[in-house]
Task: inverse folding
């Protein structure tokens, strides 16, 4: 399926296999592959601080990341990162496939949460 006509382009960041281990025995990160994925819908995901908690002082909500809807069904993995609007995000949880509509037979998008990488 093609992407949404007015969707945006995001970039999947995926590490290849480790070429070996460093002097301490830790795996060396594999080469990074960047793959643009066009025609996706990106919506901000927000979280409200706990009522009465210290985080709530002078705040309403905090944008914690994005929810992505990908009708192209690109191969998303929990180990991937994604660049959305210039921000590098981690995929949080397992990407979910909406499957096929029992009414129209059309296939829905793959949906996943992407949290901003900080620190």
Result:
């Amino acid at each position: 399926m093609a992407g949404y006509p007015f969707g945006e382009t995001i970039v999947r960041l995926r590490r290849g296999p480790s070429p070996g281990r460093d002097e301490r025995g830790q795996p060396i990160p594999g080469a990074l592959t960047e793959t643009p994925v066009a025609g996706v819908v990106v919506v901000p995901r927000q979280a409200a601080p706990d009522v009465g908690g210290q985080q709530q002082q002078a705040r309403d909500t905090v944008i914690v990341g994005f929810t992505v809807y990908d009708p192209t069904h690109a191969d998303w993995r929990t180990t991937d990162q994604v660049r959305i609007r210039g921000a590098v995000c981690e995929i949080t949880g397992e990407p979910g496939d909406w499957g096929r509509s029992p009414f129209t037979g059309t296939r829905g998008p793959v949906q996943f949460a992407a949290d901003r990488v900080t620190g």
